[in-house]
């Protein structure tokens, strides 16, 4: 049995209507940099106005930064940090999906530290320097159920010029406060609901398979997979189903906790290469495209783990049952027909993607229960490509 260090210092307010508590819950500062996406969703939904009003009720000022892309990039991290310093913000609030919350974390780092964010990133071409100062405190208000970033210390940012999409974290990047209100998720479109739900599923599944898994991460991972298998199809079919949304949101938060006490494996490294080269590819969609080939490759490498995952998904406790259950879930959510080629990924570039994954995020390959060679990695890409 592996030992573990269970440290998740985030206060999480979970449940329908919890956003209202932002107006009275103690905040980690008095002036927030509010980080949202470059799109209009937070404005059209009224969520931005609600958050700004609640901050005012709680005697906090706010400055808006609205540049974040679906696959967030380094230059916006640096721009946001400059605004936070100029406006003398003393905490950062991320409102939206995983991209905005991850960006809020990275901005919080660079609002207090010198140089460039990539100086501190500890894989790929990052400088791996220790942080000089603690990041600004972070508040996460999630409007999607996908990344679990409200419950972990990680931020995934892309260096566009180097085509590196890397997750970096430190203890100071745990949110001080996270609000998970499934009422904010009722308008997420069906396909995006599915993409996000599967991202959470793979965080849990990879965390369960990783060599650093522990008894605590196993409990969280299996429950997360169980909830997604049971409730994600209902959330996709009927976005107004508040109970289904709440169960998937809980699964997502649990998957973030898995990421805090275990880790992703090489599947995430492989997908990060795909969306680093093709930024229009949603992360969850890329994981879905890889998943059948990826998990089929590993099924006989960790049979007891695959049997446990199959059982959690409602299938027979048989290692051979997990992938069919996964593909059945994808069909139920309407995402079984995704193609890499639809997003511009060519078969000829698959070896380059494998090289990027292994070079940029080689540490995740080291956490697999079987060490993939370059040939294995290319073969998985080829089996998944269509």
Order of helices and strands: EEHHEHEHEEEEHHHHHHHHHH
Q: What's the count of strands? A: 8
- Uncertain segments: none
Class derived from helix and strand content: alpha/beta
Specify the biggest β-sheet.
Answer: 6 strands, parallel
The rounded distance between the terminal residues' Cα atoms is 40 Å
Q: Tell me the strand order in the biggest sheet.
A: 1-8-5-4-2-3
What value does the average pLDDT take? 97
User: Approximately how much beta-strand content do the residues carry?
Assistant: 5-15%
Question: Key terms for this structure?
Answer:
about 45% helix, two-stranded antiparallel sheet, single chain, 14 helices, alpha/beta, about 375 residues
Description:
This protein has helices at 41-44, 47-57, 74-86, 98-110, 190-209, 215-237, 242-261, 266-277, 283-298, 303-312, 322-332, 350-360, 362-365, 374-384; strands spanning 11-14, 31-37, 61-68, 91-96, 138-142, 154-159, 164-169, 177-180. With 386 residues, the protein is an alpha/beta fold. The strands form two sheets. The protein has a six-stranded parallel β-sheet, sandwiched between helices. α5 runs parallel beside α9 (283-298). The longest helix is centred in the middle third of the chain and has 23 residues, at 215-237.
């Amino acid at each position: 049995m592996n030992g573990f260090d269970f440290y998740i210092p985030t206060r999480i307010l979970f449940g329908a209507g919890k956003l209202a508590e932002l107006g009275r819950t103690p905040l980690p500062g008095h002036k927030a940099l509010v980080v949202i996406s470059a799109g209009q969703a937070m404005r059209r939904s009224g969520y931005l106005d609600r958050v700004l009003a609640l901050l005012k009720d709680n005697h906090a000022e706010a400055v808006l930064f609205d540049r974040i892309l679906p696959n967030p990039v380094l230059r916006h991290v640096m721009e946001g940090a400059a605004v936070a310093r100029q406006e003398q913000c003393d905490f950062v609030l991320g409102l939206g999906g995983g991209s905005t919350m991850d960006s809020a974390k990275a901005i919080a780092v660079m609002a207090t530290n010198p140089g460039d964010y990539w100086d501190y990133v500890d894989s790929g071409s990052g400088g791996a320097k220790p942080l000089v100062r603690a990041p600004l405190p972070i508040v996460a208000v999630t409007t999607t159920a996908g990344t679990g970033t409200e419950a972990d210390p990680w931020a995934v940012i892309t260096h566009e010029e180097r085509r590196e999409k890397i997750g970096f974290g430190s203890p100071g990047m745990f949110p001080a406060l996270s609000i998970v209100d499934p009422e904010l998720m009722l308008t997420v479109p069906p396909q995006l609901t599915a993409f996000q739900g599967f991202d959470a599923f793979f965080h849990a599944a990879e965390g369960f398979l990783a060599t650093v898994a522990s008894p605590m991460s196993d409990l969280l991972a299996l429950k997360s997979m169980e909830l997604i298998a049971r409730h994600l199809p209902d959330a996709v079919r009927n976005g107004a189903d508040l109970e289904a949304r709440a169960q998937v949101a809980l699964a997502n938060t649990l998957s973030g906790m898995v990421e805090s006490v275990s880790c992703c494996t090489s599947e995430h490294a492989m997908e990060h290469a795909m969306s680093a080269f093709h930024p229009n590819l949603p992360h969850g969609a890329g994981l879905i495209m890889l998943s059948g080939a990826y998990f089929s490759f590993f099924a006989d490498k960790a049979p007891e783990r695959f049997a446990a995952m199959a059982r959690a998904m409602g299938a027979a406790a048989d290692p051979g049952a997990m992938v069919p259950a996964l593909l059945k879930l994808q069909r139920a959510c309407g995402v079984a027909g995704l193609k890499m080629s639809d997003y511009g990924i060519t078969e000829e570039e698959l070896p380059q993607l494998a090289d990027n994954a292994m070079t940029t995020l080689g540490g995740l390959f080291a956490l697999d229960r079987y060490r993939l060679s370059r040939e294995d990695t290319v073969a998985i890409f080829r089996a998944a490509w269509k």
